[in-house]
């Protein structure tokens, strides 16, 4: 469904006229099938968030293509309502001037799907992410981290997308809340049959939720493995990463 | 409407709004409100003190100070406001483009701003008046041309802070168009900043217009203008200091009303400040109840 082919990305280093460029991603190719959960694991600075931005179509790759169902994601119409995202920083994920209701309505409005039953739809979405309908009139600063992240998830699911990109979506939450949100994500995936692209540096969380994991290092794919076979990864770097968790 | 009520809850803001509304409407309908012709000279009434016929007395040519004050609202407040709105909206437009799109557009707009800002403001305005000729409208044009760069720079910074945030990223990922993102997400967040910088420069613009009128570059002599009235009073500052009062107080009143109102707008627009205020009131009530409880005990 999502097909990333030979993607490269570099950013300019220094000022406007500097020619020096820093390469962030080199020759990345992979595919994510419908309904699959693909984990993208890497250390800080390995280029995983940049890859996320490319997949969302916010930025364009220097070389290579990112296709969603055969169409390039950079075309707005190709991804409208089909790809959604949840980000790491829950404090800036919701417009501080929007109530929870307005925030969830935004993607729905964009699709022109405003019907009378939308009020009940918001209640349903809030219920699905484990929040009370009384949260509808609250502003983001009145929510706790876990609650805000739940609202973000509800907002991402609202258009029933085929794919959600979770960019470090649970990394800024604390332990017990992390597990709750992971459980929530897994139950939602059953309901809507969505694909997840789960970007994280936390192998345990990835192993918990993903079908396949892709390990990247310095902007290159180190290895792609199914979770069941995570133990017998080939590359030295992947082994080292796993070793660090086990000990 | 809810927002309007929020503003009115704050008493200082309501008072400021009243002052501004009254000033503006009196200025627009000046001929109806002014008791005398502001340019009518009565040499026998030179420096006359307050009387029932001339409520604020007469100036060095025996002209009615109240009427001059009322007619002076037009250049001092209304036209300054027009110039301010023009330069803020031009600056905001460029600032939004530069801050949102970044990259080469940003670099180009900011270098142009740097060039504009590298000239001292007064000199730039003087040069433009030199080219365009003397008169109020030319001063206003010069203001718009020399001030937009400053606004563009400040607005760009506040847009940039917002444009980085994740909810903008989310909207982009959804496929919302750039214009819609700017209108729906960035304008409301940047508006308080814009309100504060424009209100603070309102005062300085009023004073600058007065300064130029004093140099003989702005309003020409018989026409009334607050800054010019101050300058006329300056000549008799030590013998009759009370003549400074009317125009001076008028300037202070209007400028502070604008500043207070923009402050209140900022509070009324921001849900965070709004809520915290409610909570504060709640806390005050709670502590008051506590105190009463203690007294009973």
Q: What can you see in these coordinates?
A:
The complex is a heterodimer of chains A (247) and B (297). Chain A is of the alpha/beta class and 247 residues long. Chain A has a domain at 1-76 and 196-247: P-loop containing nucleotide triphosphate hydrolases (Rossmann fold, 3-Layer(aba) Sandwich). Chain A contains 8 helices and 10 strands. In chain A, strands 6-7-8-3-9-10 form a 6-stranded mixed beta sheet, with helices on both faces. Chain A has a 4-stranded antiparallel beta sheet with strand order 2-1-4-5, covered by helices on one side. In chain A, helix 5 (145-157) packs parallel to helix 6 (175-192). Chain B is mainly α and 297 residues long. Chain B has one domain (25-251): MetI-like fold. Helix content of chain B is 77%, strand content 0%. Chain B has helices spanning 2-9, 11-28, 30-33, 65-101, 103-117, 121-132, 136-163, 166-174, 178-214, 226-234, 245-269, 271-296. The two termini of chain B are 45 Å apart. The interface between A and B is medium-sized, with 34 and 21 residues.
Helix and strand layout, with pairings?
The complex is a heterodimer of chains A (247) and B (297).
Chain A (H helix, E strand, L loop, with lengths): L1 E11 L8 E12 L4 E5 L6 H9 L6 E6 L2 E2 L3 H4 L3 E4 L13 H11 L7 H11 L16 H13 L5 E5 L7 H18 L2 E6 L2 H7 L2 E6 L2 E7 L9 H11 L1
Helix pairs in contact in A: 3-5, 5-6
Chain B lengths: L1 H8 L1 H18 L1 H4 L31 H37 L1 H15 L3 H12 L3 H28 L2 H9 L3 H37 L11 H9 L10 H25 L1 H26 L1
Helix pairs in contact in B: 1-11, 2-4, 2-11, 4-5, 4-7, 4-9, 4-11, 5-7, 6-7, 7-9, 9-10, 9-11, 10-11
């Amino acid at each position: 469904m999502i097909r990333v082919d030979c993607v490269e990305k570099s950013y300019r280093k220094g000022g406007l006229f500097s020619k020096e460029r820093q390469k962030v991603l080199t020759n990345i190719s992979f595919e994510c099938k419908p309904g699959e959960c693909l984990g993208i694991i890497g250390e800080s600075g390995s280029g995983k968030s940049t890859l996320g931005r490319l997949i969302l179509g916010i930025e364009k790759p220097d070389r290579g293509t990112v296709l969603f169902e055969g169409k390039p994601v950079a075309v707005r119409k190709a991804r409208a309502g089909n790809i959604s995202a949840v980000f790491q920083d829950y404090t800036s994920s919701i417009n501080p001037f929007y109530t929870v209701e307005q925030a969830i309505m935004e993607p729905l409005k964009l699709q022109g799907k405003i019907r009378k039953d939308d009020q009940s739809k918001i209640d349903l979405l809030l219920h699905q992410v484990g929040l009370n309908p009384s949260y509808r009139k609250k502003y983001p600063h009145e929510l706790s981290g876990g609650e805000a992240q739940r609202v973000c998830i509800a907002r991402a699911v609202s258009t029933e997308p085929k794919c959600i990109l979770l960019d470090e979506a649970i990394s800024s939450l604390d332990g017990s809340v992390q597990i709750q949100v992971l459980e929530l994500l897994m139950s939602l995936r059953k309901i809507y049959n969505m694909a997840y692209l789960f970007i994280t540096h936390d192998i345990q969380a990835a192993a918990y939720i993903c079908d396949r994991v892709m390990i990247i290092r310095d902007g290159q794919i180190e290895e792609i493995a199914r979770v069941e076979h995570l133990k017998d990864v080939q590359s030295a770097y992947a082994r080292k990463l796993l070793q660090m968790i086990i000990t | 409407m809810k927002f309007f009520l929020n503003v009115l809850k704050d008493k200082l803001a309501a008072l400021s709004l009243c002052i501004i509304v009254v000033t503006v409407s009196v200025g627009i309908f000046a001929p109806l409100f002014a008791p005398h012709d502001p340019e009518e000279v009565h040499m026998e009434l030179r420096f006359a003190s307050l009387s029932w016929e001339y409520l604020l007395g007469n100036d060095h040519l025996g002209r009615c100070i109240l009427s001059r004050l009322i007619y002076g609202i037009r250049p001092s407040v209304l036209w300054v406001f027009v110039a301010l709105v023009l330069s803020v909206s031009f600056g905001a437009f460029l600032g939004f483009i530069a801050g949102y799109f970044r990259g080469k557009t940003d670099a180009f707009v900011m270098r142009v701003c740097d060039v504009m800002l590298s000239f001292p403001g007064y000199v730039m305005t003087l040069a433009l008046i030199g080219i365009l000729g003397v008169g109020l409208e030319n001063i206003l044009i010069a203001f718009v041309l020399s001030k937009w760069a400053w606004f563009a720079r400040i607005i760009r910074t506040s847009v940039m802070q917002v444009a980085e945030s994740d909810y903008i990223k989310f909207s982009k990922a959804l496929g919302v168009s750039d214009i819609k993102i700017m209108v729906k997400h960035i304008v409301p967040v940047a508006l308080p900043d814009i309100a504060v910088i424009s209100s603070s420069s309102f005062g300085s613009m009023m004073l600058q217009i007065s300064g130029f009128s004093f140099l003989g570059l702005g309003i020409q002599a018989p026409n009334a203008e607050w800054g010019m009235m101050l300058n006329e009073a300056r000549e008799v500052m030590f013998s009759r200091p009370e003549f400074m009062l009317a125009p001076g107080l008028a300037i202070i009143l209007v400028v502070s009303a604008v500043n207070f109102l923009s402050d209140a707008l900022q509070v009324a627009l921001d849900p965070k400040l709004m809520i915290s205020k409610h909570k504060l009131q709640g806390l005050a009530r709670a502590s008051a109840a506590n105190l009463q409880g203690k007294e009973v005990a």
